[in-house]
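Good day; I would like, with your permission, to put a structural problem before you. A protein sequence and the structure tokens that stand for its backbone fold form the material at issue. Thank you for your consideration; the sequence and its tokens are set out here:
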Amino acid sequence: MTDTPASVKSVTGSVTQLSEMGPSVAITMMNFQDVVDELANTLGRSVIMGDPNHRLIAASSQGKDIDHMRAMNVIQREAPPEQKEYFETIKLNDAHQPVTVTLRHLGGLERLAVPVRDSRTHLATFWLILENLPPLRGMDFAAIEAAVSVTRDLLGPKDAEREPGTSDDIMGCLLSPDSGERRQAFDEAVARRRLERGEHTIVYAVDMPVEVGTLDRLSYARHLSATRTSSLAYIGERKELLLFVGRSSDTADSAALIRKEAALRSITVSAIGTAHHNRLSPDILEAANQAEMAAGIVRAVPQLAGLGDISALGVWALLASIGGDRSYLQVFSPAAFVLCTEGDEIQRHTIETYLDGACHVGVVCEQLHIHRATLYYRLDRMPQAVKDALDDGAQRSALHMCLKLIRLWESTGRI
């Protein structure tokens, strides 16, 4: 029999204990019960996770798809001797791919056994009942693969003990908290021609609703990276944003593909922020940080239509760095403060559109769908502080920026 990994023996399900197993676990913030519950919810069928000795690690709630064998395995916390003997006979722990297991001779329904392995060891097995249930689809297998990946991180050796990996493993180290590992991964990715130094490499930060589960996000990310028409590579998740890296020449196509693949899974993409690699940077961390900032701005500013590169968001990035204290407005722009505290929405919208249109009356009237006389009437009835600001170049610029700042604060809930 294969010995049970020590990490399985010590697990109680607490996030604190799991975090001690390595940085990758802390990133996922999941435990074994989370994994089986999310996978069961995605697949619409019950899920069991067992260790190499076929003892129970975690089980989802028991739905209508279970049989007596499944129920007893959960109650007894392990498979009975006759099942273990059969699994030894078919060399289940040597499997590297999902295996269909017939258990009719033991009184059970047909199952799919999905192995979880690192480069050396069988770590665990997922069990899914197949018989009398709809066939598993491609998206289901993507979710299963995501569950295997998270479980491997929970049970496998710490990063320092891992052997050098594949090209995908290297891409997964591009955002490592260790600067040396991060730079080495970037150098290797360039050497393997997965990336280029400079502006031809672009990082995408993809924002999704928080209710989308970890496994659903991970299976989506992995499927997107594997799509033939995609140049994107999934490099991790930070601050509830999925991060990808790709070629800048494919930006429009990649953004469309990101949304298309999400829509196929009934997932909404709230925002996509992008940033290009700076040739002087030794890795892509700076670009990732900038892409994350861009995604946050795009999410908060509806007129950006859900997509923006940090290079085009300089003013918004500047505004985003200012704390949400309304009293600042009295210093930055008394005119904006008056509009914010005493004016109405029509006045604010009129002045903001007037300044957006560089004070060109014809353009502004077309945007507001009003007559010139109406615009002049509104401007004439503005508070005196606003009139004074409109007559001074510097004050006018400050008023314009502060009106944008107010919109940004409101959209992000800071005021």
Q: What stands out?
A: Strands lie at 48-50, 56-59, 99-101, 111-117, 122-129, 201-207, 233-238, 241-247, 271-276, 307-309. The chain has 20 helices and ten strands. The longest strand covers residues 122-129.
